[in-house]
């Protein structure tokens, strides 16, 4: 018995979704208020980014209390009400679990600092630091108080890594997971979970900034099985996803194959680096279509043949809007938005929609650095200037790559601040809100297309269960794949270009039924002409 593969998940960044108090910050009551809207869209589950107490050094991923609600977002009564209203509308909740590290303000770290040896064993504390590099830059080690020792932080200096080799740590973290299960939560997204299996002895590792010493280690699989057995594994309807940093197909098959009893599925991010010049994020480059297609085909085929399961997505809280990255939005925003949606919703895996994606939201088009609040972007701007870029050149790169692009307030209507807040939003609304907002778009082609994709996944097992086979691999502008299921076949063609292309169809599909298209009146014969950013799904049996 595995989880329901017809389900579609909607990601909410609570801070930016809907503010009900006028303080400029989105809250849990705002989520509750909009549940009927999400029910109309048709989603089954809402993934919430962290809303726990936190110093907010890393947008809530630095947790100081795992079993409480940050007053900024409301209280536990608000949380319980949100779960209840969700259930009334057939929507469950998936929470973000950050179990690789905790804030140094967490009582465990504070007790460790105070000299309690029991809690010192919750962390990696040693006399000499290794040469590992933090993912936020600089050494991955910081002085542990005034003891002369050092503690490990793979991320921000205020995020101390937890020692999963200590059974007491595992016991405490499993208690956290069960606490939220008892509150009615039906899913978890585990943050950078493939980094929890550090080597037994932490030594220098000059290769790749130390990553081989702590990424995808075999013991991670043991820990995930332990957690599965101690927590959510007893509930077959439960859905779990692991965020996997710098991972491999081999490991993601293991993380997600049902018989291994680890997780339901895995996120990987390789496809969102195809517009990085020389692998560097803070650069401007056109996306590499060949690389994108190759990654989708390789992961799609291997995960299909080997029984793994992927979480499929274009957008999240850490990425600029996919529309700006992959589509000519000046001329083809609606066509591009629907094509991108079909390219993952008709594929093999569980699709994730990031808030605003279903109405075709775009990057905010800010005018200056003073509009940005993301610390990563502000640091990157300074670094670009130091590297010799002019302020104009550096700003253009930030405009294209900042995480704030996806964190702008949800655009509900054309009123001030996009209907997000009656106060001053914590982050300025994007310029497009008067034209692109829920009020306007609910009757428009993008929202309706998402509803149709969700409906088709629920109705047709070929979409939720079918295998994945690459198709038209030679095309330099069409990403195409087939799905096969019990004698039925589906061919999905996605034109990633702003110009038409003629495609010669495989014989089986020349008389196929048009299951879905984002253009009307497509003629299907031996060949088919795909319009700019057209998606076309042909069904046959």
TrEMBL record:
One function term, GO molecular function aspect: alpha,alpha-phosphotrehalase activity
Domain of life: Bacteria
CDD domains assigned: AmyAc_SI_OligoGlu_DGase
GO BP: any one term: trehalose catabolic process
GO annotation, cellular component aspect: cytoplasm
Residue intervals of the Glycosyl hydrolase family 13 catalytic domain: 11-407
Keywords: Glycosidase, Hydrolase
EC number: 3.2.1.93
Pfam families named in the record: Alpha-amylase (PF00128), SusG_C (PF23915)
Enzyme class: hydrolase
InterPro entries referenced in this protein's UniProt entry, alphabetically: GH, GH13_cat_dom, Glyco_hydro_b, O16G_dom_2, SusG-like_C, Trehalose_TreC
Assigned protein family: Belongs to the glycosyl hydrolase 13 family.
Protein name: Alpha,alpha-phosphotrehalase
Native source organism of the sequence: Streptococcus oralis
């Amino acid at each position: 018995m595995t989880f329901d593969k017809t389900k579609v998940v909607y990601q909410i960044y609570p801070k930016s979704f809907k503010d009900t108090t006028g303080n400029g910050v989105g809250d849990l009551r705002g989520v509750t208020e909009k549940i009927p809207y999400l029910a109309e869209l048709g989603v089954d589950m809402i993934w919430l980014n962290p809303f726990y107490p936190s110093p907010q050094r890393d947008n809530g991923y630095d947790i100081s209390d795992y079993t409480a609600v940050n007053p900024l977002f409301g209280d536990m009564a608000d949380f319980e009400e949100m779960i209840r209203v969700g259930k009334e509308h057939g929507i469950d909740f998936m929470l973000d679990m950050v179990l690789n590290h905790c804030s140094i303000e967490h009582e465990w770290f504070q007790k460790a600092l105070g000299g309690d040896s029991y809690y010192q064993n919750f962390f990696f504390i040693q006399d000499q630091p290794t040469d590992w590099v933090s993912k936020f830059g600089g050494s991955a080690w910081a002085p542990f108080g005034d003891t002369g020792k050092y503690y490990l932080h793979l991320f921000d200096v205020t995020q101390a890594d937890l020692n999963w080799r200590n059974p007491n740590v595992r016991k405490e973290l499993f208690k956290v997971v069960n606490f939220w299960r008892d509150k009615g939560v039906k899913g978890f997204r585990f943050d950078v979970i493939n980094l929890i299996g550090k080597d037994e002895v932490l030594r220098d590792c000059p290769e790749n900034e130390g990553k081989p010493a702590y990424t995808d280690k075999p013991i991670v699989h043991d820990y995930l099985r332990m957690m599965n057995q101690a927590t959510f594994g007893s509930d077959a309807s439960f859905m779990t996803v692991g965020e996997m940093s710098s991972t491999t197909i081999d490991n993601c098959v293991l993380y997600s194959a049902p018989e291994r009893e680890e997780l339901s599925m895995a996120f990987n991010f390789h496809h969102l680096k195809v517009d990085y010049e020389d692998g560097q994020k803070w650069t401007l480059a056109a996306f590499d279509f060949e690389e994108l297609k190759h990654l989708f085909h390789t992961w799609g085929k291997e995960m299909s043949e080997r029984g793994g399961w992927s979480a499929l997505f274009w957008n999240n809280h850490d990425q600029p809007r996919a529309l700006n990255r992959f589509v000519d939005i000046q001329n083809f925003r609606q066509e591009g938005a629907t094509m991108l949606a079909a390219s993952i919703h008709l594929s093999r895996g569980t699709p994730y929609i990031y808030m605003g994606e279903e109405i075709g939201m775009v990057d905010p088009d800010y005018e200056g650095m003073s509009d940005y609040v993301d610390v990563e972007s502000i640091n990157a701007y300074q670094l670009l200037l130091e590297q010799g870029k002019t302020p104009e050149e550096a700003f253009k790169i930030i405009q294209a790559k900042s995480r704030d692009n996806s964190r702008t307030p949800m655009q509900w209507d054309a009123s001030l601040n996009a209907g997000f807040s009656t106060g001053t939003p914590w982050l300025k609304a994007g310029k497009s809100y008067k034209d692109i907002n829920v009020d306007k778009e609910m009757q428009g082609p993008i929202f309706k297309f998402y509803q149709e994709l969700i409906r088709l996944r629920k109705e047709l097992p070929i979409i939720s269960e079918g295998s994945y086979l690459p198709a038209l691999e030679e095309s330099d502008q069409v990403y195409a794949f087939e799905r096969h299921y019990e004698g039925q076949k589906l061919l999905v063609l996605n034109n990633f270009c702003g110009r038409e292309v003629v495609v010669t169809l495989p014989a089986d599909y020349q008389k196929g039924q048009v299951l879905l298209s984002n253009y009307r009146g497509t003629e299907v014969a031996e060949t088919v002409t795909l319009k700019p950013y057209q998606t076309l799904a042909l069904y046959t049996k």
